[in-house]
Amino acid sequence: MASIMLTGPAAEPLTLAEAKDFLRVTQDDDDSVITALIASARVLVEAQTRRALITQQWRIVRDAWPTNGRVWIAPSPLIAITAARVYESDGTTVTIDPENFAFNAAAAPAHVSFAPWAVPQPGRLTGGIEIDITVGYGGDASAVPEPLRQAMRLLIAHWYENRAVVASTTSVLPASVSALLAPFRVVSL
């Protein structure tokens, strides 16, 4: 199963002003560096937790429907199923009404349930099923849990003060960041 980002977040969970305030930076010389660190911190937090912080659009691609009627979704939290389709062997698509699917928005990992007999089988052997979803905590930073925003702040500060560590492949997350992320990690199945 592949998860493909269709539309990234429209904003970051932290503004440049918030990050500069946390870093106690008053000049504008490093604005581009800090802006890049904000985006990098969000990506790392999302990867470590398998959660989308700000609303995003993703596509789940599968080869076949699971026999148990449940498709696991990553990233979480799942907001909505916006479209679903299967591909015939000739490449044409059969649209599936998103109302055929049910999901528990609070579940982590998120999953979509369906009646196996109610969905058409794909004719294409590889990537024959696509489900488009909306995920995230919401469209603005106020919806993102504060521990995840704090983890971002700490990462930004760590990277800003230790710029050589950012490029290192052996760098380890600071213990405080790992502790903040631990309750939000979604385990893989």
Descriptive notes:
With 189 residues, the chain is of the alpha+beta class. The protein has two domains: 2-53 and 140-184, Orthogonal Bundle (Hypothetical protein yqbg); 56-135, no CATH class. The chain is built from five helices and eight strands, in the order E-H-H-E-E-E-E-E-E-E-H-H-H. The strands form two sheets. Strands 1-2-8-4-5 form a five-stranded antiparallel beta sheet, with no helix packed on it. Strand 4 and strand 5 (93-96) form a beta hairpin.
Helix and strand layout, with pairings?
Layout (H helix, E strand, L loop, with lengths): L1 E6 L8 H8 L7 H19 L6 E7 L7 E4 L4 E10 L5 E4 L5 E2 L6 E4 L15 E7 L10 H16 L1 H4 L8 H7 L8
Concise overview:
The protein has 189 residues and is α+β, with helices and mostly antiparallel strands. The protein folds into 2 domains: 2-53 and 140-184, Orthogonal Bundle (Hypothetical protein yqbg), CATH 1.10.3230; 56-135, no CATH class. Helix content is 29%, strand content 23%.
Helix count equals: 5
Main CATH class of the largest domain: Mainly Alpha
* Principal-axis shape: elongated
Main β-sheet description: 5 strands, antiparallel
Bin the strand percentage.
Answer: 15-25%
Label the CATH architecture of the largest domain. Orthogonal Bundle
Task: Provide the number of structural domains.
Answer: 2
Name the poorly predicted regions. none
The value of Rg in angstroms is: 19 Å
Q: What's the quaternary structure here?
A: single chain
Mean pLDDT: 91
Distance between the termini: 12 Å
Give me the count of strands: 8
Helix content: 25-40%
